[in-house]
Specification:
The chain is α+β, with helices and mostly antiparallel strands. Helices cover about 35% and strands about 30% of the residues. It is built from twelve helices and 19 strands. Strands 1, 2, 8, 9, 10, 11, 17 and 18 form an eight-stranded mixed sheet that branches. A hairpin with a 2-residue loop joins strand 17 and strand 18. Helix 9 (about 300-320) packs antiparallel against helix 10. The chain is globular and about 70 Å long. The mean pLDDT is about 95. It binds 8-demethyl-8-dimethylamino-flavin-adenine-dinucleotide and P-hydroxybenzoic acid.
Amino acid sequence: MSERTQVGIVGAGPAGLLLAHLLHRAGIESIVIETRTRAEVEGTIRAGVLEQGTVDMLTEAGVGERLHREAFFHRGVYLRFNGETHHIDMQELTGGKRVTVYAQHEVIKDLVKARLDAKGDVRFGVADVKLEGIDSSRPAIVFTQDGEAKRIECDFIAGCDGSHSMSRHSIPPGVLTRHDRVYPFGWFGISVEAPPSSDELIYASHDRGFALVSTRAPMLQRLYLQCDPNDKVGNWSDDRIWTELRKRLETKDGWVLEEGPIVQKIIVGMRSVVVEPMRHGRLFLAGDAAHVVPPTGAKGLNLAAADVRVLARAFDAFYRRGDEAGLEGYSATCLRRVWKGQRFSWWMTTMLHRADTDTSFDRKRQLAELDYLTTSRAAMTSLAENYVGLPFDDR
Ligand code: RFL
Ligand code: PHB
């Protein structure tokens, strides 16, 4: 027996959950299908930085209460190179926009709670998810839940199922154009039980490679260092990690890195991907399913949120007035922002990391760029307005 809903949503990451929430507020029904368990979804450590527009969106949607109590609000970030630290005061440079540090899994917990409080339909731990009839007017999601075969007929399907996206793979060959760049480095990420070493994030460019100091909670810090993407976590003892971080973060003024027990280690590869268009028939792709950025610019979750903002508005116009213009324009509207996010993430990544093929010319050029960036107000403003988030172009 088939069930029915207006919008079937594949994936309970930030994109899928936020879309379900925005649709609910617009009086539109949805069902969210997720292969992982609720505990897995709420426990995966990923992004940390929210753009001002993402914070505003969560606040306006009524899911910003805990964020405003527990997040860290920073004026800007530090850039560190040549043993010196330079502050970029983004709040001043952008007329008041701040850097918000609030973990992705906390956003997820807030959204799951909001969905369940509103008796929203989120199915965790399902398997064998497939899409049918995305070219037809009656697309469906089929899957198994507790060993039982299920089918949900939908008006539309939103593919919010992350970078490996089954939804994207359901689109017939030849429809999508894929733009892709793989970087020759990855990030080694650690979570550390220690007090913060800095009042704001530090992006460090060193001859030995990139390092990043971020935070999660007063006694939980998040640090990253550039590594070989094919390296293994087991090759990095705690000692080796601390020695490398100390070297890359060392300053002339004797700044001290706070150390403590490492409670999590992870290696992530880095790539830039965009598929175009972000729609096929009645299937709309959103978030990492359509585009992936390297984490250096802190844009991934924010682009996912911006996509579903456009999509929720388009569905609202369709169901309220039969107006299809928003749905027709969905891909083009999102891609304008996506490509700017891609450009920024690529720029931050190539400015701050060292590639094996880099020559001394490349290093000198990077340092000149960082020097320019930290001394020219025009350059700093460009960094700041991209980092805190470009304005939505439909306000
Ligand atoms: P997600 O979060 O991957 O969620 C997709 C969900 O879909 C489920 N799924 C399926 N469900 C049903 N059927 C299937 N066949 C399915 N296949 C998959 C998955 O289980 C999952 O729950 O995608 P979404 O919603 O598009 O969100 C994207 C963000 O998660 C991602 O862009 C960010 O985490 C990227 N990112 C950062 N973004 C920021 O905006 N700021 C940051 O500071 C930031 N830092 C980061 C990051 C990503 C990182 N990693 C680990 C890649 C730091 C790191 C280290
Ligand atoms: C994080 O805290 O995980 C984080 C912060 C800034 C980034 C990427 C990740 O650019």
